[in-house]
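=== RUN LOG ===
request id: a7f3
mode: sequence -> structure
chains: 1
length: 839
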Amino acid sequence: MSAGGRAARRRQRPRADAGWRQRLLAVVYVLVGLALTTALAWPLFQTPRLIVIAVVAGLSGAGVAVIGQRRRWPLWKRAALLAGVYVVEVVPLAVPSGLASFPAFFGALRDGLIGIIIGWKQLLTLEPPLGDYQAVLVPFFAIALLGTALATGVALIPTRRAGFAVPLVLVSGAFGVAFGLTDPGPSATVLGLTIDAPREVLLSTLLVAASLIWLTWRTRLERSAALAKATSTTATLRTDTVASVAAAARRRVLAGAMVVAALVIGLVAVPAFADVSPRTTLRTGVEPLLVIRNVSSPLADYRGAFAGDRYEAAMFTISGDLDGIDRLAMATLDRWDGQRFSVSSDGRDATRFTRLPGGDPAPGAQTVSVTIGSGYSGIWMPLPAGVQSTPVFEGERAGALTDSFYIDRSSGAGIDIAGSGSARGLREGDGYRVDAPPTTAVALGAPSATSSIDLQSYPQLDAWMQAQEQPRSADGFTELISRLRERGYLSHSLAADETSAQWISDLQGDAPYTFQSSYAGHSTARVEEMFQRLVDQQNRVGPNAAESLLIAAVGDDEQFAAAGALLARAMGYDSRVVVGVKLVDDPADGVLACDGECRGSNLSAWIEVRSPGAGEWTTVDVAPQFRQQPVLVNIGQQLPENPTVPEQADVDISQPPAVQRDDGTTTTTTDAPAPTWWDAVLPYLRIGALTLGTLLLLALPFLVIVIAKVLRRRARRDARVPEVALVGAWEELSDTWADAGIEAVGGTRLERARSAQSAPAEHLARVVDHAVFAQHPPTRDAVADAWRICDDERHRVTSERGVWRRLLIAITPRSFLRSLRLPDARRFAPRAPRRKKAA
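=== RESULT ===
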C-alpha cells in the first residue's frame, strides 16, 4: 500500500473511532437514565421484578435500536421487531400470573397489550406498594422497552438531532414522580433550606446531570473528530496561552455560576411555594372520592332505615367464623363542616380510598361471608375491622366488583363503585368473602391539652361539660359519654305514625317505652339544642338530683354520634363517626344486634376516638337509653325527698320545634360584615401572584441563560485590550452561529466564514486575523468597526427566522457548550508560528 493510502486511512480512523465511541456513549446514557427511572419508580412497586424488567427490557430495547441503526433498517422494520419483542416478553416479565395456565396466558397477553393505554388508571387507584399485582407492571415495562428503544434510536442519530433523546429520557424518569406517592416521606434540611421529597429531588438531579454530561462528551467527540480531520489538511490558529487559559477559566466559572444560581434560586423558591399548595401527583384526587362526594352521607340517611318497609327489609346476611367480631362498619365519617359528618377528601387527610393489590390477611384472620339483600344498595360495604386483603366476590358481577373495590386503610371502610350513575355499588344478589382478625379492645390514652374545635361556637356543649366537673382525662371523657347516654332518650321520628309504628312496638316489647318526638339532622344547631336541654334540666333540678330527673335530650344514634364526636374533640381527642351494624347486643342500646340477617332495624352508629399522635382508634358507643323517659321539671317545682319517676299521666312531655330537619338552621344569627373591594380583589391577586411566581420559576433557567449571554457579550465588547475585543467580536458571531444551528467548519476564521456563506463574516475574519497577526496593535476604531459588523450579522441571522426560532436562539445553551469545548479542541490544532518582534 502506498504512503498516500496509509495517510488517508489514518485521517479516516479518528472519525471512525469517534463514531464508535458516540454510539457506546449513547447506549450507556440511555441505560443510566433507565436505571435512575427504576430507582424513582421503586417506592411505587417495591418488587425485585422491577429490576428484572429494567435489565431485560432495557437491554432488549437498546439492542433493537442498535441493530436497526447498524443495518440501516427502515422505521417500519424496526417497529415490527420491537413489537415482536414486546409480545414475547410482556407476559413473563410484566404479567407473571399469566404463566399459571394456558387460558391464563392469553388473558395476561390481552392485559399486557391494552395496559399500554389503560394501565395508568390501575396505577392511580391501587395503594402502593403495588408489587406484581395483576398487570400493574405493564406501564413500566412499556417505558423500559419502548422508551429505551426510542431514546436510543434518537441518541444514535449522527447529527445534532440526537439531543432530542434528552427529553425522552427525562420524561421516562418523570414516570416514578408523577405516579408516585403523594406523601414521599420526611423532608430534608440542607443549609437551612427544607427540601420536600429529597430522594426524588436527588435522583432527578442525577438524571439531569447525566443528560448534561452526555451532551458535553458527545460534543467533545464530534469536535475532536472534526479537528483531527482538519489537522491532516491545514490549520493555523494563533493562541495566547495565558489568554486562552483565562478565557477557559472564565467560561467554566460562568457555566458553573449558571448551574449554581438556578439550583440555589430553585431551592429557595420551592420551600416558599410548598406552603401555598400541597405536593400533588397524578394519584391525588382520583375517582372514588368523586363518587363519594356525589352520594348522600350515610349518617344523614340514618333515620330512613327505621321508616316504613325498610325497617324489616334485609340489608344483608352474614355467616362464617364470627367469634370475636363484634361489629361490621360501613361508612367512616371524619369531616365535620358544621352541618353534617362526611368523608374528608382534601388529599392531606388519611381518608383516601385506594385499591388493595392482593395482600395477605392479618394474623389470626377469620373468614366472614356477606350476601346483599333486597333492603340495601349503595357503594358502602359492610366490613369487619382489620381487613388487609381484597375480598373474594361471588355472583354474576364478581369481576366488575373486584375491579371497583376500594378501601381506606386508615379507617378500614370499604366501597365498591361498580356500575354507573345512581346505580353504582352493591345490589341484591352480590356477595363476597373477607378475612379479618377478631376485634381487640384499645385503651384510650390522655387527650390533648387544647380542644380541636372552637368552644365559642358551641356554648351549650361547653356549658354542659363545665357543669359535669370532670377532669380532662380518659376517665373524665368516659364519664361524660356515660352521662350523655343515660340522660338521653331514644326516638327515631318526629311523629308516631304508620311509618314509625314498628320500631315503637319493638321498644315497648322490652320496656314501658313512651314515644317522644324528635327531629332529624345532626348539625350544630341540632346538637346544641340537645345540650341546651340537658343544661336547662340540670339547672332546674340541681346538681344532686337523681339521674332519672336529668333525662332531657331526645334523639337517636344520628344525633348522639355527632354529639359524642364533638364532645371528644372538645376534650382534645381525634374523633370520627362510624355507621354500621353490631353483632353483640348492648342492653342499654335500643337498636338490636343482627343475628345472621341484618335489617334496617339493626343499623347503628358509634364513634371512634384516638389520642393525638396515637395510631389505634378506640370504639365508643354513644346510643341513648330508652327505658326511662324524660321528665319536664318546671322552675320552682318542689322535688320529692325520695325522687321517683312520675306516672305517665302526670308527665309533661316537652315537644321539640315542629320541623322535620334542622339542616341549614342555626341557633343564633349574626350579620356578617359587608365585604370591601379589597376582599373581592384579594383572591384574584393571590391567584395572579401564584401564577406569576410559577411562570417565573419555570422560566428561571432560560432567564439565566439570556442574562449570561448579555453579560458575556458586554465583557467581550468592553475588553481593555483592543486585540481581545476584536477577537471577542468574532467569538460572539461564532456563538450566534452555534445557537442558530449554522454549520461553520474549517480550521481558520476565513474558512469558517466561507462555510457559513456570509460575506460580512469573511470581512470580519480578515479584520480580526489582520489585527491578531499585524505588527502594530489595532485601534479602538477598528474594534468599533468589527463589532458593528458583528451586530449587523447577528441581526441578519436572527431576523431571517421566525419569532419562535429567534426565541429558541436566545435561550439555547449551545454556545456555552461550544465555549466549554474550545480549549480542549485547541490541543488538537497545530500551533501558529510566533510573530517576530520588529527590529
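=== NOTES ===
The first strand starts at residue 188 and ends at 190.
The longest helix spans residues 3-45.
=== END ===
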